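Rotation project, supervised by the postdoc (A.L.). Task for the rotation student: set up a whole-complex structure prediction and record inputs and outputs verbatim in this book. Inputs entered:
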Amino acid sequence: MKNYKNTIKKSVLALFVLISASLFIGCSDDDDPPAPVNEEEVITTMNITLATTGATAITLQSQDLDGDGPNAPTISVSGDLTANTTYTGTIELLNETESPAENITTEVKAEADEHQFLFVSTGAISQTGYADQDGNGNPIGIDFTLVTADAGSATLQVVLRHEPKKPNDGTLADAGGETDITQTFSLTVQ
Amino acid sequence: MKKFAFMLFLLSIVGKGFAQNCESILLGQVVDFHDNTPLDGATILITGTPLTTITKPDGKFRFEGICNGVLELEIFHPDCKSQFITITMEGDTFKKVSLEHHLEELQEVKVVGDLVKKETNSASEQTLNLNTIERFSGKSIGDALREIAGVSSLNTGSNIVKPSIHGLNGSRVLILNDGVRMQDMEWGEEHAPNIDINGSGSISVIKGAAALQYGGDAIGGVIVVSPQKTVKTDSLFGKTLLNAMTNGRGGNISSELSKSYESGWFANGQASFKRLGDREAPDYILSNTGVQEIGIKLNLGKQLFDWGWKANYSFFDAELAILRASHIGNVDDLIRSINSGQPEVIDPFTYDIDAPRQEVTHHIASLNVYKRFQGLGKWNVQYDFQNNRRFEYDVRVGDDRNTASIDLELTTHTFATDFKWDANSKYTLTTGLLARFQDNFANPATGVRRLIPDYEKFDFGGFLIAEFNLNESFILDAGLRYDFNRIDAQKFYLESRWEERGYDTEFQSLVIDDLGTQLLTNPKFDYHNVSGTVGFQYEPDNSTNFRLNYALAQRAPNPSELFSDGLHHSAARIELGDLRISSETSHKFSLSQSKDFDNWGYSVEPYVNYISDFILLEPTGVEFTIRGAFPVWSYRQTNARLIGVDVMGYTNLHSNWKTRHSFSLVKGSDVTEKQALIQIPPVSFRNTLTYMRPQWNDFEIGLENRYAFRQNEFPPNVMVFSPEQQQEVVLAINTPPKAYHLLALNAKMAFAVFGNSTLTTSVSAENLLNTNYRAYLNRQRYFADDLGRNISLQLKLNY
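Outputs recorded:
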């Protein structure tokens, strides 16, 4: 019964509020503007550094500053790889919509057992391998290795999966999960 | 306890023999109002004559040598209150009389005819009665509505069931809950109506926009959910329903209690609770498909003939898990899911409701007052308040794991008044006014750019409806309505999106702040909509009914059609509204013909609906982000045409056997683009065969057969570039699944317990053969099969 009475009271009150409010509709347009949302989890940028002794490191970058906006990511590769060389790779993920840019790599590291980078290569790349492990001894891929073959052209696809099957056989199909990042780089090996 | 409105079939057949004075035969049958079981031992008396008789075990009675003309019958039954009815004898006449059999509970008798007053005279209309509603007590309102020919549903899994009438859903279907128009996020495809089916006494569906008193924008139709009617007698009664089901390993309980007084006071309360764990497809667990729902309804009021008031409060809270496998990352994940034919995630059964999930809370409070003026009519005033809070949780990482991705609060105040002149028996006129204010708040704490912005909406409407009873068999109705809608939003656009949409040339004046990468805009749009209806009903005799109706309806675009902008994570698609979208206009012609013969009957309802500037959402292409490519679904306007027919039939060839049949067909085409419309339900059949044996504790067993054809008319699929495959591939997003066939079995019996109470038990099995199938109108058809076999047990106690 209490509920009823409250409801009735509220309703009657609200009725008066409505009637009086409707008299003022149109006069009041001074609402505070809504707060903007700057997405926190967005990964705008992936920087991959491929280093080897005795040569300048090569940087591969995919940058999409408007996030889910209509603009496609811009992709840049700083130079050519050397044939028959082993490279040490490191991946850095950034959210550049914030200033200073937020480093997302640390979040991935913190939840390493739920994430994995997968590498798919074609052409003049002979193999890729993992150089790091999560708490269960499964690969993550923030640190990896890449071995080039004889000179030629190559593609390297880098995919970050969230909640993949772990361990997996290193293929996208077996890993499953959701894709947080996927980017394919066209490379030249000489 | 169902003193309440029920739709009854009144079969009154005029005999073949031509009438002669005082040689006619009056045949009749007295049945229980609740379940149509014949009543044995009822006394029938023709008032003013010595003629009297008693019904046989089959409920039938017979008088011979009756004169033509008007008679009054008095009907007694030991368990029922006496009832007077008048009938017109024209030759041999058959009369079916329904008596309220549970006198102790009810103290009232319901007889005959259209117990649920039709909402319109000329439009196609159908009602679900309390029996059907109780059968679906463990399900959703959308599931129950599919019982009506021409009504299908757009599902997201099995928890989110959006009714679709004649191929149209969402904002085009207006839902009226106990006199209050539901204001929730009806625009989203994955948003179900926030109604607990257990609180309703009857549900009517008007297939079109003809019920102008409720709104002018119901291009699809109107669903009127009515509570059980109260009567002015001293009574106290209640009901408890308990459902347990195997698929989901849970069930629900619903209880209600009503008290009414001779003085007109009444109060009733109802509460229900539902809990299910993961559902199962025939071959696997549908991981994360559990549900928890709580519904509460309270009514209090005083109803007298000349005045009355009613206060109502209802609360609905639902936590709905969304199939884990349907949460995907990008277009490659979608392609993978479509091709694999099996969900990506299959975990062991659990009751947990994890992300992705929705949590919706809906409050309604309303106050209604009426006053009748002698020799004039009835005046009605209503205020209602609604608050709808929606959280949608996605699979998120890090600190945001438990933060909702969508957090909307929609508050609505509606004030409505109408006056009905019904003093003249030749015509009634109803006129009304409406004012509504709505505020939507999109919480920025989600950390996700808002899919729907903050906005305020103002609606004003006025209508006039007239109904003319030209003669006993001919009723004409007509109506006109005007609605004004203003939407005043504050929305952030990504600068890149603003330019990509071309808004920088057309709508630059809306920009009120430039934040660098984002623009704050203040779109303010006004819409003027006119709707109207005209039609007639012709009933040459009590067994034939013919209705013809034309309805014009205009609907202003909803916030999602205007403002949607962004990645819908749970659907892995980018949805884009358009500020340029204008109102859509529908012209619908519907015809309905029904005829009842001695032991069979049919009705046929063809219709055609031309909609100019029809607003639709369809896949249009793909956009690239660092996460890969996403299908883009855009709203656009086109001219559409929907043509369809609903056919229903029944037979009562034997007193123990009855059959029912229905068939629905709708064809939707985009006239401008010369292609099929998206999401049009496939052709379907439904047949039921029922065997009844009242002597065995009201034993009843029914077999239901449903067949849905494959939808062969669908818009073309889109080509997308797959980063994984490094090539253009077909995204088979529109390809419908195969046809399917489902069987269901339902058996029930009733027992008298504790003296005055009745316990009804029923057992039912859905998808009896455990068939693997996917439905075209289920948005999760890309990811998993539909539900497998479900066996449920229902106990109902009336007291």
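Student's summary: DSSP finds three helices and ten strands in chain A.
Supervisor addendum: The two ends of chain A are 84 Å apart (CA to CA).
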